[in-house]
Design a protein that fits this description.
Length: 258
Amino acid sequence: MNVLQCLTELYNSQDIDSIYKELALQILGNLDQMKRVTIYDIAELTNSSRTTVWRLVQKLGYDSFSDFRYALQSAASQYVYYNRMVEQRKTISGEKLIRTLSEQLLEANDVLTQLVSEKEIDELTDEISDASKVHFYLPFRTSFVYSFQQNLWYGGKDSEYRCLIPDMLSTTRYLNDNSIVLISSIEHAETQDMTKVFEAIKEKGSTIWLTGNFESRYANYADRLLLISKAKPAAWLIAFEYFILALSERYRGKYIDL
């Protein structure tokens, strides 16, 4: 996840009166002032203490304020490159944007049909049925995973869905050697180091299914590589969501709707 995704995820996961929710909101809402900041500047801008700012940094999964500041300054000074699923030049008109999105739908279809077979869906579904726990560690939220979790819970499976690194690390303690973790790392320069997460999963003897929109530096940890593609981000995400939908519906069809 990049720093803006982390802040957004933290904001959405906190209680309405949480100081960290307000702090994340103030940072995101004043991003133009984050190009050259210190911990003192953020504390003053958000009317909070340095200790509170540091705890926020820890909740986001950064090992030091320097790492957080570098990521935040990069996002603030180069926002045009962040949170972008479509190239800027292809958003200059509604007509061009819709045409581009239609092309990405076709690309998503190609990714799904070329990289996922009927046999593999059945194999993965059977492995899920045999597992006691299925966790999802992803840098984004999608309703398809929530739907899948409902089927997993109905089938007696323990399931967690986490997006922030500290939350991922916290829930690895529930894993065992009969667990499956579907994990994705979006390999951009601003992405946090997820090595500790992968190592914690392997220490539990759990199975790792790794997915991503191109080759990952964590591939050596994976027991299965799924939907690895150099597709454009939006096209890959659409293909991934339908891949999850396929697993969820096949699992339900084989093991619940009997």
